[in-house]
Structures are given as C-alpha cells and as structure tokens.
Amino acid sequence: MWSNRWLFVLAAAGSAVGLGNIWKFPYIAGENGGGAFVLLYLLCVAFVGIPIMMAEVLIGREGRHSPINTMRTLTQQHHRNRLWVTIGWMGVVAGFLILSYYVVIAGWALHYIWQMAEGTFVGATGELAEATFDAFLADPWQLVLWQTLFMVATVWIISHGVIKGLERAIRWFMPLLFVLLMVLLGYAVNSDGFDAGWDFMFRFDWSALDQGSVLIAMGQAFFTLSLGMGAIMAYGAYLPSDTSLTGTVVVIALLDTLVAIAAGLAIFPIVFSNGLDAGEGPGLMFVTIPLAFGQMPFGVLFGTLFFVLVSFAAITSAISISEPALAYLVEQYNAKRSRVAVSLGVIAWILGIGSVLSFNHWSDVHIVGTLTFFDFVDYVSQNIMLPLGGVLIALFAAFALPKTVVGNQLGLRHPAVAVVWKLLCGVVAPVSVIFVFAVTVGLDELVLGLLGAGG
Ligand code: PFF
C-alpha cells in the first residue's frame, strides 16, 4: 500500500508526467498546427481521459492484483465473460511497444545532460542547436549507448521493487521539475516570440487540423495520462480503500495537463524567436530548450538540471509502463522480480533498436505510408491500442461491474458524481473513441458519399 493518498498521487503523477508532456506534446502540437489540436486534446483529457482514469483506478483497487489477474478475479467473482481479460493482455503488449521507443528517447535526454554540462549550447544559434541534434541522431551507436544506459537504470529500479524508492524520489524531483519549467516559462514570456507562441497554442485555427490530427490528439490524451494499458490500474491496486478516488484522479489529470501546457508555452516562443520550425518533429525539445538555456545566465547549471529532471520524469514513467507485465509474471509464476525485470528489459531493448535505426539507417524505410518503424510503433500503440484498451476498460467498469461495487469505490457521498461518471464512461468516452476512429479511416466521408449516392 502507498503510505498515504498523496504518495499515490505522486506516483501516478510520476507515471503520467514524462516525455509525453515535455517532449511529445509540444512536437505533435507543432506538427498538427497548434491551437485547434490543443483544444481537442484538452477536451479529450476532460471528457474521455478523466472518466477512464477513474475506471482504471476503480478496477485496480477492487481487484488488488496485476491488471491481468485483476481482470481474471473480477470476471470470475461477478460471473462475467472471460474475454474481458483480453484488456490485461493487450495492455502488456502495448506496454512493450511503448517501452521500446520510450527508452530510446529517454536516452536522448540522458545524453543531453552531458551536452548541457559541457556548455555546448552557450550562446548557440538555432542552426548550431539543430546541427548538434542531427549529428547525434545520425550516429546509431551513440543512440544505442544511451538507450542501453537508460534501460539498465530502469531495469535496476524495477528489480528492486517500486514503492519505497519512488515515493521519496518523486516527492523531491517532481516539484523541482515544475520550478525549472517555470524558469523556462519566465524566459519565454520575455522573449520576442512569446506572442507568436501563445497564438500558436491558443488560436483555434480549425483549418490547420486534418482528420488524422483528431486521432493523434485523442491518442495523446491516453498516452499522457498513462491510460488504456493497465499502468494506472496496477498502481490503483495499491491505493488505500478509504481515499477519495474522484478527487485524486482530477488532481493527477490537472497536474499532468499543467505540465504539458507549461512545456508548450516555454517551447513555442523559443521556436518563433529563433526562426525554427514548429513542425520540426521529435527533435523539437532537444533543439529549443538547449537554445534557451544557452542564452540564459546560469544556463549551464539550469540546463543540466533540466535534463536530469526530464530523465527522472521519464524513468518514473518507464517504471509504470513495465509494471503491468512485471507484476503479472511475478504474481503468476512466483518468479524472481529481478529475473523478470531483466527479461522484459532485454525484449524491449531489442525492439527499441528498430526505433534507433529509424532516425538514421532506416529513415527511408516505411512500414506503412510514410511511417518509419519508430512512427509505426508509436502510432499503433498510442493511437490505436491505448484508446481501444481504454474503451474496453470504460465499458467493463460501467456495465460489467455491479452497481454496488462501483458505488462503493466511487464513494456514495455524492451520488451525482456516480451518475455523471457512468454517463461519461459508459456513453461519452466509448462513442467519442469510436467516432474518432471512424473519422480517421474516413468512414464519415464514405457514409456521406453513400448517402449522397443514394439520395
Ligand atoms: N504518461 C507517460 C508520459 O506522458 O510520458 C507515458 C506513459 C506511461 C504511457 C505509462 C503509458 C503508460 F502506461
């Protein structure tokens, strides 16, 4: 059990706040035109993410096992179809896919700790920052080296059990990361590009949005909140029964969103003051942030610290990505935690080599359409598997679990909460996800076309 509610909040926030907020959110917002995308993402967090997060924590706390065994226990106990257990298995697969590339990107952050400490970016121009990053990406051996270091660190931590070390560390590092983001934000507010950056994030230009962006915004909501694969369910299993679930979930979602918005507001002004490209892709954070620190007093110190904290935020997320698989194997086969951790790490590491190569030797190898191996693994896990898993979790919580169980978990002090939650979880979230899937594959045009042809 977490020693109290706040420590659960910290751990779940440690899972939620990670590369998704600081690295991914700004770069995909940049690639998808900003404002309208940001709005969609916020809507998805509020109306799909929060209710599904409640469902995950609720199921986890009710089942009190690893996600796969939690689903087994609950389906048996309430005589439901065993197919629901697929939710747990899908989560394990999604976890492997995500972990494989997550560790690669986290390795970049690790590498940038040294780059910053060496003062590479002091007084640097945009071109230099870009060239430094491109040179780094071009060298697969470097990428593998940092990927390996980060994987070893992750495996070491998960081998030693999650709870104790994490609690203490998260309590210090998370607030510090937030403070440094505020320092960056202060710098951004005073830069020439602030108005342009603000406009980019908050002017809702619907024409910048295409069908594909809608799915990416939704996938990002799942990814950033760690939803749809059992990670939060696994942590929920440790949450004390008397803690308010709704309040806790809302706090975590707010914290997570705040960090993402702060990162965007820090990064885009730097993009526009230095004539960089907002749609530059996965390198966005690694080009803009060093640039800002390079121009700041004490930039070497702050910049180094920043990448230390980002690496830390990434590791608390990486730990939670592996937790569903790890917890299951340890529980089911009574296996040694360290042995399971090493095996998981090796498999994800091998898979990650594909992502490493996507940034150099395989950059022209496209798995589907224009997607490289990295893009493909990222796309399938984030935009398809997480939303799908999330919907199944939502439907299970809303319709397969008995009302009394859900009522007890949500706490019946506010009956209205349960009603609103059921509406969101049972109807709004699934309908939105299915709608977004349909829009993405162009079913709407197909239906309209058929209607047109028929009429
Ligand atoms: N939420 C993490 C981030 O934003 O970086 C990533 C993540 C963690 C995704 C755990 C999925 C997960 F289960």
Summarize the structure.
With 455 residues, the chain is an all-alpha fold. It has 19 helices and no strands.
Structural notes for this entry:
Helices cover 78% and strands 0% of the residues. By secondary structure, it is mostly helical. It has one domain (5-454): Amino acid/polyamine transporter I (Up-down Bundle), CATH 1.20.1740. The protein is globular. The N and C termini lie far apart (61 Å). The model has no long low-confidence stretch (mean pLDDT 92). 4-fluoro-L-phenylalanine (PFF) is lined by residues 15-16, 18-21, 98, 223-224, 226, 229, 231, 317, 320-321.
Descriptive keywords:
single chain, 455 residues, mainly alpha, Amino acid/polyamine transporter I, 19 helices, 0% strand, globular, binds 4-fluoro-L-phenylalanine
* Beta-strand residue fraction: under 5%
* Helix coverage percent: over 70%
Bound compounds, each kind once, are: 4-fluoro-L-phenylalanine
Second rung of CATH, namely the architecture: Up-down Bundle
